[in-house]
Amino acid sequence: VSWLFNPTRSEITSLDSGNIDDILNNADVALVNFYADWCRFSQMLHPIFEEASNVIKEEYPDKNQVVFARVDCDQHSDIAQRYRISKYPTLKLFRNGMMMKREYRGQRSVTAIADYIRQQKSNPIREVQDLEEISSLDRSRRNIVGYFEQKDSDNYRTFERVANILHDDCVFLSAFGAISKAERFSGDNVIYKPPGENAPDMVYLGSLTNFDLIYAWTQDKCVPLVREITFENGEELTEEGLPFLILFHMKDDLESLERFQQEVARQLISEKGTINFLHADCDKFRHPLLHIQKTPADCPVIAIDSFRHMYVFPDFSDLSVPGKLKQFVLDLHSGKLHREFHHGPDPTDVAPGQPIQDLASSPPESSFQKLAPSEHRYTLLREKDEL
């Protein structure tokens, strides 16, 4: 199909360890094709990616507005490892050097890729014309509202950068000038309106020009501590590269979910960033349950998936025992869970005179690495049973 396109017009930037940070940090939006020359799907994507770049360059001629780039993962394995690339080709979106957690999974066509970039360039913030619009917000969503004296300000530009990154997780709104004056009693103001009609608002109290501070605050509000894993977002979550601590519960068992959320917040907030806290529908995820010799009748069940093996929290009723859930996670990090599955309890955990049991079986294999296999990519992951 390459004759259909004109590669001589293409402006695809080849990235390497010497230029990648400079190019991505200076790009408003960058779409990067991580590929391998030997991969048939990579070869098929090249002319499509190049033509999509040509189309977008016509609409966004400034070289820093949109960058189309590529990384040869065989030649630059250090970059592939840095961004946890395990499938070829993978299209990752970057904003001002920051990689977005949701990669491009749309159609591999010129039109679809061009439309995706146009969508990424659209304004993620809805400007309100009357504060009455705020009172009628959809309170099933997470809303971030910024009140600014003027749009042309450093405060708003920082808010806009944050919204560009997190608009998939929250609804962003803004009000300016006289419309926002009632909410600017102490200057420009940003407020989080959490889900729930009666949930109290939360006010951002830090500097509005400090991107790192406001981004961290907004991310904490927009991304729940405990997220639901589904077949739609499973691959995306595995690509974050963190092991899973999962509560399997029946869909209508909200009490167990609430207990799990409370204990994660109470015991494991310091572990955020080292493990992903998730919950899953027992009926939908029967296959992972079978890996740990459980069925929906056994739910609620708590387990860790390390991406190598799965480990079961001994007893859900122990969830509220102070420190018990945290120790389960710490035992994963220390290697104790894996070690004890192979060799029985550590010597320090064995009563005097009791022999150490040598277990012949291995812990169940990971069941989440291949949640949403792609039909259009070659994967480096080990083949597993289909879910």
TrEMBL record:
Which GO MF terms does the UniProt record name?
Answer: protein disulfide isomerase activity
Query: Which stretches does the entry tag as region Disordered?
Result: 343-373
Q: Which residues form the signal peptide?
A: none
User: Could you name the Gene Ontology cellular component terms for this entry?
Assistant: endoplasmic reticulum membrane; endoplasmic reticulum-Golgi intermediate compartment
Tell me one GO biological process term: protein folding
Polar residues composition bias: which ranges?
359-369
* One Pfam family here: Thioredoxin_6
Domain named Thioredoxin: residues: 1-122
Protein name stated in the entry = ERP44 protein
* Native organism: Ciccaba nigrolineata
The gene from which this protein is expressed is Erp44
